[in-house]
Design goal:
The chain is α/β, with parallel strands linked by helices and 244 residues long. The protein has nine helices and nine strands. The protein has one domain.
């Protein structure tokens, strides 16, 4: 069984910061206090130009026939565009697939259409002051926002079903050999992947832990002898033809 964590390296932040349209869009969204739209801005700029999707397609080719599950802190569609099926992925920090009332109305959670996302991305680049393509909440008539961790009243119910599949999958790892593969996971959200994965690797004596990160690659002493780390960017590694 293979448990995979996908982290910040797959957001390609260095590439984004080098793009003038991203810097302009970032400044505009910060001024408008619409931080929930940052993943959409990143998705639009990276689509067709970034390397993360190509790297993850390589990963998918390696694990497609294995019993795996993926936890990701990314909030873009990078895993889905790489071919991973939704029933094998949980994204607890949010996605571009759902929207919610910014005020936190629980019943407001719903799917986002591609037309809405395209219009919203255009409005960001055009610095449209309205940014109202997601519509208004049918319950409190407040603004709708993308369902992600940047929303002050983030509705975690957006990923609850996926998380349920994950916990059920985890139950099947008891007394089983498990490879825990952590790719590009930093310390932005350590309670989502990094700390839980370390705990799992410690308690499951049949687990082997692999941590790959350009800067934060060190393993805890508790995993000594049952893990391996590598100081390398995960995207570079996958595009270099590494075989799991």
């Amino acid at each position: 069984m293979l448990l995979i964590g996908i982290g910040e390296e797959f957001e390609e932040r260095s590439y984004l910061k080098a793009q003038p349209e991203y810097e302009r869009g970032l400044a505009y969204l910060e001024k408008a206090e619409r931080f929930d739209l940052l993943p959409l801005l990143a998705e639009g700029i990276l689509n067709g130009r970034g390397r993360a999707v190509r790297a993850l397609r390589e990963l998918y080719g390696m694990v497609a026939d294995k019993n795996y599950f993926i936890i990701s802190t990314c909030q873009t569609d990078v895993l889905l565009r790489a071919g991973f099926p939704e029933n094998r992925v949980a994204m607890p920090c949010g996605t571009l697939k759902k929207k919610q009332c910014a005020c936190g109305c629980e019943q407001s959670l719903t799917e986002v259409g591609e037309v809405e996302l395209a219009a919203l991305y255009h409005d960001i680049l055009a610095e449209n002051p309205d940014l109202g393509a997601l519509g208004t909440c049918p319950y409190c008539h407040g603004k709708m926002a993308l369902n992600n961790i940047f929303v002050e009243k983030y509705l975690e119910s957006g990923y609850r079903e996926d998380w349920g599949r994950y916990t059920k999958w985890l139950q099947g790892t008891l007394n089983r050999s498990v490879c825990i593969l952590e790719l590009g996971v930093g310390l932005d959200y350590p309670s989502v992947i990094r700390f839980p994965f370390e705990k799992m690797g410690f308690y499951n004596q049949k687990a082997f832990f692999i941590r790959i990160n350009e800067r934060l690659h060190y393993l805890t002493k508790e995993l000594n002898g049952r893990g391996k780390s590598m100081a390398k960017n995960s995207i570079d590694l996958l595009l270099g033809g590494v075989i799991l």
